[in-house]
Amino acid sequence: MKKVIYFTNVFPKYRRNIWQKLLNQNLFNIKIFYGKNPLNGIDSQRKETIHNNQENLIYLKNYSIIGIIFWQSKVIRECIFSDFDKVIFLGEMNIISTWISCLICKLRKKEIFFWTHGFYGNEGKIKSLFRKVFYKMADQFFVYENMARDKMIKKGFNGEKIHVVYNSLDFEIQLNIFNQLELRVENPLINLFKNNLPTLFFIGRLTLKKKIDQLIQAVIGLNKK
Hints:
Blueprint: E1 2-10, H1 16-24, E2 28-35, E3 57-60, E4 62-65, E5 69-72, H2 75-81, E6 86-90, H3 96-107, E7 111-116, H4 125-135, E8 140-143, H5 146-154, E9 162-164, H6 171-180, H7 188-193, H8 212-224
Parallel strand pairs: 1-2, 1-6, 2-3, 6-7, 7-8, 8-9
Antiparallel strand pairs: 4-5
Helix pairs in contact: 2-3
């Protein structure tokens, strides 16, 4: 059976379902390494809440260098000494240990996967060049959306090696909630808010980086006008 190691930054709660599926399948053995400390405002789940086989969930440490560059412990050591066939990295080029680990895996002839957003489209020429060089170290990619796949293909990457996995949320729970909603009325928000006013939504993490205060101020401004 093939052996896979997967390195990521933290274990966000919404990844619980997909990680359980990865750990419980019988196609390959997988070990997941992640930091238990919060990173960029994202909290990390504890290993005991997901799986009984705790040796397959392993803590590492995330070290921040001037807030924009990171280093992860254990990663290089695992890539040098561990017995594995394939490796999955979080495809973030600001994690310096990932660059070094990829070179080690290349020398060991291990297949490298990046789980990544891909190109954002707003990178300058230099940043885009660095990202392209970084991505060239991987053999295959998991991306969150079709648009990300299209952007990578335009940058010269092989579309057959780019796999769209979307955001890997807990679809079963979402489907259950969706099926309980009262969708038969013309506008279900009338029942929720008891009025027919225009409604503005934000979907994303509740972190300072998202600047949701600007959204609130915008709504206040619109209501005043």
